[in-house]
Amino acid sequence: MHPHELAMGGSQINALELAGAVRDLGHDVTIFATPGVLEDKVNELRLPYIEAPAARYAADPGTISKLNGIVRSLDVDIVHAYEWTAVLNTAFGPCLGFRTRSIMTVLSMEVPGFLPRHLPLIVGTPGLAAREMQRRCNVHVIEPPIDTDYNRSRGTAASRRELGINEKDLVIAIVGRLTTDLGKVNGVLAAIRVVDHLAVRWHGLTLLVAGDGEGATKVHELAAGVNRRHQRPVVQVLGNIPDPRPVYDAADIVLGMGSSALRGMAYAKPLIVQGQSGFWVTASPETAGQFLTDGWFGTTGKGDAELEQALRNLLDDPDRRAELGAYGRSLVEERFSLNRAAERLLSLYRGELSKPHRPVATAVSLARTAAATAKFRAVVNWQGRLPATRTAGNGS
User: Fold this and answer.
1) How far apart are CA 106 and CA 8, in angstroms?
2) Are strands 49-51 and 235-239 parallel, antiparallel or unpaired?
3) Do 92 and 111 fall into the same domain?
4) Among 25, 88, 240, 241, which residue has the least CB neighbours within 10 Å?
């Protein structure tokens, strides 16, 4: 398994949990990734780990060389690469040989067009798979798996004691990276603004924010202002939490997208799904259809007002919170089981290993990927030299 990094993130956690589940089904699995806070999870899962060097390029020679050496020394059958940088390192590394095969997973909401088309692609939603099948034929869906034994409530009161939160307070939690990717940090800032307003009525209301990233400074600054106004810690910015289970478990309501949204539901918490451009929608039997097709995300909404109304509806109605929490837990157990996903993944591995090698098709695919990647990097570098006003005007 080659996640692109071991920083906190849904794709990386999915890779590690699937690696542990595949290992438990009787296979040898090794993790190869750059270091990060998720090394603790690697150790917890008792997975062998080999550190990848810090990459300098999209297809990094140092990373490729080390990955090739690992594949030879461990006699690896298949390399499973997660996200585009790991895919490129694998495609231009061990996949150039005759025997080693590869599968790639992209759990972003868009799949880069320059990725090799001869490799099987795993995505996280049926909607994304349907779009990708218009340009490649070997596409599969494995929805983000959740270890429902590991991710389950062990008692909200105990988790609140661990975090130093009053048992009677109403608590909202958001766990995720504070990055501009998919509008994540903008959603966190919106949640802080809305909780600032709602805390006037609900005097014990608390927002927990777990995660880190380039937007952390803005989050800390906004949270500090809110806490000064209310003269209490309304917003608690916890930073990176290697084990975020108590954060989910302490909550009355969870905000999130992607895998974090599913983990919130695994703790039987009502969920408000976060997306880009002010998207906030409460997960329920009435709204789940769109998320089961296109992922736990959205692209356009009404901003702070939409989040505030969704929170008011839930804060005012404990019975509705309990009802939606039970629904979410049931949905995750039935559809997003880790064991089910691991069995599905093993069937894809076996299928790939049983196919004959096609050197001509592989060469054509890699030539196309090399040209498209070079073009992509050139565009990114060119845009990076543009004045900020012009870049913004182009929607970059």
Assistant:
1) 16
2) unpaired
3) yes
4) 25
